[in-house]
Amino acid sequence: MKNRFTINLISITLMMFISEMIFRIISDLEIFDLNVIRIFFGCLIIASIISFLLSFMKYKISKYITLVFGIITAAYSWAQLGFMNFLGVYISLGNASQGGAVIDYMGDFFASFKPEYYIVYITCILYIAYLIFFSKRFNEVKRYNLRDTFLIPSLVILLSCNVYYISLTSKMFEPKFATTTNIDQFINCSNQSQAINSFGTSAYFVLDFRAANFGKVVEAEEDFEYTNDKKEDRVIDENSRVINDTAWKELIANTKNEKYNKLNNYFINQPITDKNEYTDMFKGKNVIFILMESTNDIILEYPELYPNMAKMANEGWNFTNNYSPRNGCATLNNEFSGMTSLYSIHSLCTAKKYRNNEYFEGVFGAYNSAGYVTFSAHDYTEAYYPRKTIHTSMGSGEYYGVGKLGISYSNEYVNWANDDDFMKAMLKIIDKKREDNDNKPFMTWLTTVSGHQPYSVNSIQGDRYFNQTPKNLPYDVRRFMSKLKIMDDGFGILLQGLEERGLLEDTVIVMYGDHYPYGISRDRLNKALSYKATEDMNAEQVPLVMYNPKMEPRVIESYTDYTNILPTVLNMTGINYDPRLYMGTDMNSPQFESRVVFSDGSWKNEYVYFNASNGRVKTYKEGYTEQDIARINNVIATKNKISELAISTNYFGYLGKNLTKIKDQLQAQIMCLDEDKESYMNGTHEGSKIDVEDVNVDVFDGSNTDQGGEE
């Protein structure tokens, strides 16, 4: 016991491991779980390395360094508890910019900490007590010798590493419904929730640091090989969406890049959703997408306070089980997923890092190809996200920030711009766009800002309608509701302005919330909602409403999320698109599966809630077998990997560029050709012929500036 290495090893291991167990108890993670064995040996490995280094120092110095290390590890666990409670996600180095954003509302952040979070510091208190009452017994320790200095530490580290490796590779340690393997998580650390459950907070920090600086993107293991003689099983009829793949097959044959062909073979083999009764329902009409900042279902549950939203929800289509799952960069990532129908890389501000990526299949590219005038706007600055660059790269004809909109705003985070001013400015821009483009149909994407936190302090927006909110609700919820009222006023201005211009019947408005109002605890949100936000990811539920005055009202109870919005609207507005290029599905299609997918790989629908972080399955009603759950987990994991690979390699930039090069018009590649359909139905189809001689297919590596150097 008087060996310096042994004393430090016991002290550091106990402090780390006890803090880890307290963290798991507070986070409702399993204590009697095989992951705990791995976490213990992970603590032992880290403690062994640090103890070995400390053994060369004087004991009086090393014991205080040990205390500092214990405080740092406890503080990290404490901070992760806070981030999960406040932002709904664990923080990682990949989304550290979100941590920086928290500085702007530090008061709200610390106010959100629950008292039990501070229990993680108990190990530091116990160590301080040890230093005061017992450590003097060990001031005189043995002198250095070969055994104490090198042999014992080497044996401890070797033994611990071997046990740790077994826990990573043995099937016994794999969760029953694992969405990724332990070794996959260890190498890539791509899912914060699963990684923290599997490795603990201390090891997670080490793995996160390594992944952020040296890691590589997770790749799909499947090859998805395409064979030219593959026959489609579906029957071709008048509702079939038939796509000419001649150019794409030629591209695959000429592309040498393995990653691109892996993606090519995946996408070209996906099922093609057919047309349905809602296809071309609003063909040629204007489209306004609105991403509603920090908006949850409160705006639907108080129609007297939000009459304009109530009008659109009651007279249009109201999706009552829609979710915008939070991730490491919720607003921008959820905007990105709505625009592209891809899963974002959850540990990154995806669109920010890959700001120069191109997405011909995205919302701007699809409507540009159909001859629409496209533009986008957000009533705030570029302080958090470089939307001007992102939207322009995606294909937006013009982007309007708050300065270009010409409306007043404050650089102080407490007071945002007003969404009613935003809608007034947008009506003027719509007038100008129509005048300059001979009244061509337009598509615009608007992202609001008034609903943004903070909610715990006085603000212009939070106070404006405070007295009109229910007095029995918590003060922060009431300030949030006041801010939503300003956005609803903006909707009224937009509706009235479109009607006065004779445009309302020729315009479809699609709106969804980007995330729930983080900064307000789920317990306090419960007081304003008809369902419990604290259960089964219910806090992630947000509105999705589609409105046109000629629509037949519908209430749609299927479970859905932001990835399904774009293909649904493209089908309804008669845009020729390839359904295989999207992770979501047209919600009116018979092939649509009711399901919402959360950022950690969890999912739920009418039957089941699967929690990927702990592997638990909660059954709402019978109908799903274990094989069904395993199949869905595999589909979700594959889609996330494919999305990640496609984004990191700028795959759609490569695909759009080279398909256009092979075929003069990209639209000819993805449109549903009536003559092809007729030949399919008559059994005479031989495939369209194109001249591909002298076509030089580039190996487009997708490398752009400010993207971190990924391939």
Key attributes of the depicted protein:
711 residues; alpha/beta; Alkaline Phosphatase, subunit A; 2 domains; eight-stranded mixed sheet; four-stranded antiparallel sheet; globular; disordered C terminus
What is the topology?
Layout: H1 4-26, H2 34-54, H3 59-87, H4 96-102, H5 106-111, H6 122-133, H7 146-169, H8 182-188, H9 192-214, H10 246-254, H11 258-268, E1 286-292, H12 298-301, H13 307-315, E2 317-323, H14 330-340, H15 350-353, H16 363-369, E3 373-378, H17 387-394, E4 399-400, H18 402-405, H19 419-436, E5 442-447, H20 460-464, H21 475-500, E6 507-513, H22 522-526, E7 544-547, E8 554-561, H23 565-572, E9 596-597, E10 603-604, E11 608-611, E12 616-619, H24 626-648, H25 651-662, H26 666-670, H27 674-682
Parallel strand pairs: 1-5, 1-6, 2-8, 3-4, 3-5
Antiparallel strand pairs: 2-7, 6-7, 9-10, 10-11, 11-12
Helix pairs in contact: 1-2, 1-3, 1-6, 1-9, 2-7, 2-9, 3-6, 8-9, 19-21
